[in-house]
Predict the structure.
Amino acid sequence: MKRALIITYYWPPAGGPGVQRWLKFVKYFREFGIEPIVYAPENPNYPLIDENFSSEIPSDIQILKQPISEPYRFAKFFSKKKTKQISSGIISKKEISAMEKLMLYVRGNFFIPDARVGWVKPSVVFLSKYISENAVDVIITTGPPHSLHLIGMQLQKKMDVKWIADFRDPWTTIHYHKSLRLNKASERKHKALEASVLKAADIITVTSPTTKKEFGMITETPIEVVTNGFDVSEKIDFELDSSFSISHIGSLLSERNPEVLWKVLAEICKENNSFKNDLQLKFAGAVSDEVNQSLEDFHLLKNCKFLGYISHSEALKMQHQSQVLLLVEINSAETRAIIPGKLFEYLSAKRPIIALGPKESDIEGIIAETNSGKFFSYWDDDTLKSEILHLYEDFKKENLNVSSEGIEKYSRRELTKKMASLILN
């Protein structure tokens, strides 16, 4: 077996989507000739916790841990709620306070590429010693946080070992990058570090075709698209919701606020009392103040159920129970490359998907390819309304289904096979 050292910030008991990608690869690697060794922080400051993920770690793999200094831990003394929001990526569009401006400025300009950069130097020292005493065939770094790629770059140069840089999200083109109040020097440093990583890595893996295209303009390093996916889990016991439920799993950030959808739903409720009585909007995860306000403005709060953060197993059950699954991405050119991990679990649930996002989004291609639902831009009022009415009509006939196809290639096992081939070759 080839030995792969995986350097990751997110690892159980972390919750949310960031932990799942490499947890699942590790879960299946041995089937494809890869022995994983995981390196993760000993005392991380995770915004979300899900203890259930720990049960999926193979019992006998080696896990290396080292302490990490977390700036967000100290920032909490000033504003615990705002610190957690910023560390989770929830940056308000409303006028922000002087303290928030200061926190964003410090985060963007003093911690480059991110707040975990202080972990780079001690990690390189620790892992250099480990690699010198233990055979390692390949190093894999996964970001964000993108500072972990600096660990890989230094180890590759120092230890002469193959290095794969895995990008779950873009770097300088990520949607919140412009919110960090970067000065020109900091912006140049981000771009220089990004280019250095992309040019030094032996292989780059990304989760979307658009990110591959963007990175391909910076480097000649081979780039492979290995999307996120879904686990083929044991049978989930569920009953479909009796209401016309439209469910969203995951955070609804300030800018991830599909007012066109709220407007359409409000119109239908006004026109159709039966629809108004049947409609239930279910939200699992953080919901920003802006989204809450919009729902109130459109008189939809009575139709809403806010569940907060739920465990992954609960989320899977909710996806299967729901009549319709909602996927929302920020309406910005910078988010065309973002394919939320929940899309693939939505595919597995085999419920109709309504997705909203920017034009030319990579999400649209996957939904069309798999015949799993419909994708809309933020301006498609009429077609969106027509689709919701069509879904509701099928719901009333007890015939609301979807005939998805070709989703098997997005299973975690198939994706692990693809990732393993990059390590073995």
Q: What stands out?
A: The domain at 244-396 is CATH 3.40.50.2000 (Rossmann fold). The first helix runs from residue 20 to 28. The chain has two domains: 2-69+111-229+412-424, 244-396.
